[in-house]
Amino acid sequence: MLTAHDFPSAHAADTSGIEVILVGDSLAMVALGLPDTNSVTLEDMLVHCRSVMRGAQAAFVVGDLPMGSYELDARQATESAIRMVKEGGVHGVKLEGGVDVVEQIRGVTRAGIPVLAHVGLTPQRSSALGGFRVQGKNVAGAMKVLRDALAVQEAGAWGVVLEAVPAEVAALVTKKLRIPTIGIGAGAGCSGQVLVQVDMIGNYPPGRFLPKFVKRFGDVWGETTRAIAAYREEVKGGSYPADEHTYPMPKEEFAEFEKVVDDMSRTVGSEGKNE
Fold it and tell me: Which CDD domains does the record match to this protein (predicted)?
C-alpha cells in the first residue's frame, strides 16, 4: 500500500504493482503546502481523488475522510463517504479512530462502502494524544490499541492501519484479528505496509524531517534539481533547443516567407515616407 495524491503519483504506484493506493490526507502537506492534515477539506480530497483515479487502473483506491467530515455521527460519515465514492471515484474510504467510531464504520459499511480503519497514532487527533507519539508502549496503551482494533473489526472494517505502535504489539494484534493490518511505523509483523510516496522516493531535500520509520528508496529531489539546473544552463548557453528539438520548414517555403516579409517591410516603409 502506498499513498498517491495526483495523476502522476497514482500512475507510478499503479504501474509499479502497488495493490492498494491511499489518497491520504497527508496530501495537505505534500501537495498543498498546508501545515498539517487537519487543514485539508472534503472538497480538497474530492479533487485529488478524481486525479488519482485517472492514474490508477488496477489498484484498489482508498480515500481518507478528512477531519470534520465524519466525527459527528454515522449519518455525517456515510454522507461524506458516499461523496468520496460518487464524486471522487474511489473504491473505499479510511477513517481514524477505534471504539469511538464504530457507529460511523457501521453506517458507511451499511451503505455498501468498504472501510479501512486506522488506530494507534491517529494524526488528526494528535493534539489529544500529546503530539505525534508512539502509542501502545505500556500495557494500558497496548490494550487500547488491541481493543480499538477489535472494535473496528467487529464494526465491519475490512482492514486496519496500525500507526506508530511497537513492533511486537502490532504483531500480536495482527495475530488476534481476522482482518489484515497495514503497518506504518509498526514493524514487519503486520499483514502489509504503507508509506507516504513522496517521503519514500526522496522527493524533498536532505535535512527535511522524516519519521523514524521512513526509508528513502530513491532520490527524486537530487534527480529533479540536477535536471532543472541542466535545463537552465543549456537555455542560458544557447545549446537548447537544438535542431532535433525544432520543427523544420521546407527551404523554398521559408524563402517565400522571407520574401513576403521583406515586401511588407518595404511597403510599410514607403507608406511612412509618403506621410
Answer: KPHMT-like (cd06557)
Q: Are residues 138 and 118 in the same domain?
A: yes
- Say yes or no: 71 and 193 in one domain: yes
Pair (245, 160) in one structural domain: no
- Written as one letter, the residue type at 214 is V
Q: What are phi and psi of 23, to 5 degrees?
A: -85, 85
Cα–Cα distance measured from residue 252 to residue 257, given in angstroms and rounded to the nearest whole number: 9
What are the pLDDT tens digits along the chain (275 aa)?
A: 999 999 999 999 999 999 999 999 999 999 999 988 899 999 999 999 999 999 999 999 999 999 999 999 999 999 999 999 999 999 999 999 999 999 999 999 999 999 999 999 998 875 555 556 788 899 999 999 999 999 999 999 999 999 999 999 999 999 999 999 999 999 999 999 999 999 999 998 888 888 899 999 999 999 999 999 999 999 999 999 999 999 999 999 999 999 999 988 887 666 655 55
Q: C-alpha distances in angstroms, 20 versus 10, 90, 167, 191?
A: 10, 11, 22, 13
What is the grid cell recorded at 33?
A: 503546502
Residues 172 and 259 placed together within one structural domain of the fold: no
| Among 19, 71, 163, 253, the one annotated catalytic | 163
**Distance separating alpha carbons of residues 222 and 28, to the nearest angstrom:** 23
Q: For residue 163, indicate whether it is catalytic.
A: yes
Domain boundary among 172, 195, 218: 218
Task: Give the SS3 label for residue 193.
Answer: strand
Q: Domain containing 198 — which CATH number? A: 3.20.20.60
Q: Quote the number of domains for the chain.
A: 2
Whether 53 and 10 have beta carbons less than 8 Å apart is answered as: yes
Phi and psi torsions of 115, nearest 5°:
-120, 130
Q: Is the CB of residue 152 less than 8 Å from the CB of residue 160?
A: yes
